[in-house]
Specification:
This protein starts with a strand and ends with a helix. The protein is 41% helix and 23% strand. A five-stranded parallel sheet has the order 2-1-3-4-5, with helices on both faces. Strands 6-7-8-9 form a four-stranded antiparallel sheet, with helices on one face. Helix 2 runs parallel beside helix 3. With 168 residues, the chain is an alpha/beta fold. It has two domains: 118 residues, Response regulator (Rossmann fold); 41 residues, no CATH class. It contains six helices and nine strands; from the N terminus they run βαβαβαβαβαββββα.
Length: 168
């Protein structure tokens, strides 16, 4: 699953990208709102992780532009701005979810999967090639009906392969 991470704090972005890539996501990172707009107009993503305070163009302006051009990509706002008014404003402008910083990576991953699942209107598909089966819901493989263990090192690789197969 391809995710656009829009975050100007470089260390936080590296940490989030590394953690999500270990979970099988393919992450593209940009550090400002103008770069985010360019990527969103040129590419398709399964979801966007969007900070609010960004150089170039703030996150809410990026979100507003997305929704104005009918871009329905799920958007999860990640921000230190955690007031009720900010959350309501972001959700009213079209954000699908809101997660205040600091956050647990397990919760971020679960929220991303839920957003993507809902945006597709169905559970993740099962892909099958002979007796090899990939279950998109659990993001696990079975071979001849038995679970197939994957190491952390090869998870990003199978995630890219699955994304390519699923988007055909």
């Amino acid at each position: 699953m391809r995710i656009l991470l829009v975050e100007d704090e470089v260390e936080l972005a590296r940490w989030v990208a590394r953690a999500l890539e270990q979970g099988g996501f393919v992450i593209e990172h940009v550090a400002d709102g103008l770069q985010a707009e360019a990527r969103l107009q040129a590419e398709e993503y399964d979801a966007v992780l969007l900070d609010l305070r960004l150089p170039g163009k703030d996150g809410l302006a990026v979100l507003k532009s997305m929704r104005a051009r009918d871009d329905r990509t799920p958007v999860l706002i990640l921000t230190a701005q955690d007031t009720l008014d900010e959350r309501v404003r972001g959700l009213n402008l079209g954000a699908d979810d809101y997660l205040p910083k600091p956050f647990a990576i397990a919760e971020l991953e679960a929220r991303l999967l839920a957003l993507i699942r809902r945006s597709r209107g169905r559970a993740h598909p099962r892909l099958q090639c002979g007796t090899l089966v990939f279950d998109g819901e659990t993001r696990s493989f079975t071979l001849d009906g038995a679970p197939l263990a994957l190491t952390r090192a090869n998870r990003p690789c199978w995630a890219r392969c699955w994304h390519a197969a699923a988007s055909r």
